């Protein structure tokens, strides 16, 4: 019997990583968590230079922990879009490394220096 290859799409040396990116058509942005406020709320510095008070939806709150310094995707609210939003995704360390290598975000953006572009 032939050995079973779990990932038939991946050839040797080729990098296939599925990292969700912000959906610009919905207004989603990259953000970095600045401060944990409690009760599922965080202050998030977004790539457009605004700090939004964002809430962690219940399904994310139960599934993963959010910490200061985490890179996230923020969905601004339709009302108060400059002040409020929802956190829709948190990147892992490996995914953040991939985003940095591909130039999607900069190290300065993560550390709080210059903005994205």
TrEMBL record:
GO MF term list: RNA binding; translation initiation factor activity
Recorded superkingdom: Archaea
Alphabetically ordered keywords of this record: Initiation factor, Protein biosynthesis
Domain S1-like: 17-92
UniProt xrefs under CDD domains: S1_IF1A (cd05793)
Listed Pfam families: eIF-1a
PANTHER family membership: EIF-1A
Described purpose of this protein according to its UniProt entry: Seems to be required for maximal rate of protein biosynthesis. Enhances ribosome dissociation into subunits and stabilizes the binding of the initiator Met-tRNA(I) to 40 S ribosomal subunits.
Family statement drawn from the similarity comment of this UniProt entry: Belongs to the eIF-1A family.
Protein name: Translation initiation factor 1A
């Amino acid at each position: 019997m032939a050995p079973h290859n779990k990932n038939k799409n991946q050839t040797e040396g080729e990098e296939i990583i599925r990292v969700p990116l912000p959906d610009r058509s919905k207004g989603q942005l990259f953000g970095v968590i600045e401060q944990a406020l409690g009760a599922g709320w965080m202050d998030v510095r977004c790539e457009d230079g605004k700090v939004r008070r964002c809430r962690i939806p219940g399904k994310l709150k139960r599934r993963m922990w959010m910490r200061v310094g985490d890179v996230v995707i923020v969905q601004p609210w339709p009302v108060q879009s400059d002040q409020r939003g929802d956190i829709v995704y948190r990147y892992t360390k490996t995914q953040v490394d991939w985003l940095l290598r591909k130039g999607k975000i900069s190290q300065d953006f993560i550390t709080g220096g210059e903005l994205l572009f």
